[in-house]
Specification:
With about 70 residues, the protein is mostly helical. It contains three helices and no strands. It is about 65% helix and about 0% strand.
């Protein structure tokens, strides 16, 4: 099956959610530096952020009181 840009666009419209963050050069310099380093090393920022979020979710699930 050949690649179809139209089908890809429809799929992403239905199945993809995008998140945008703003980083300020004066207060978020540490984060910007890390991202710049990841860019130079060609590391996946998406995978890194997803891993951090999932680790936090797991930690929160353990901390929440059980009924």
């Amino acid at each position: 099956m050949a690649y179809s840009p139209e089908a890809d666009k429809r799929y992403k419209k239905t199945n993809v959610s995008r998140v945008l963050i703003s980083l300020y050069t004066n207060t978020d310099k540490d984060i910007i530096t890390l991202i710049d380093e990841m860019n130079r090393k060609k590391q996946s920022k998406q995978a890194y952020i997803k891993r951090l979020i999932r680790e936090d979710m797991a930690r929160r699930a353990k901390e929440e009181p059980r009924e």
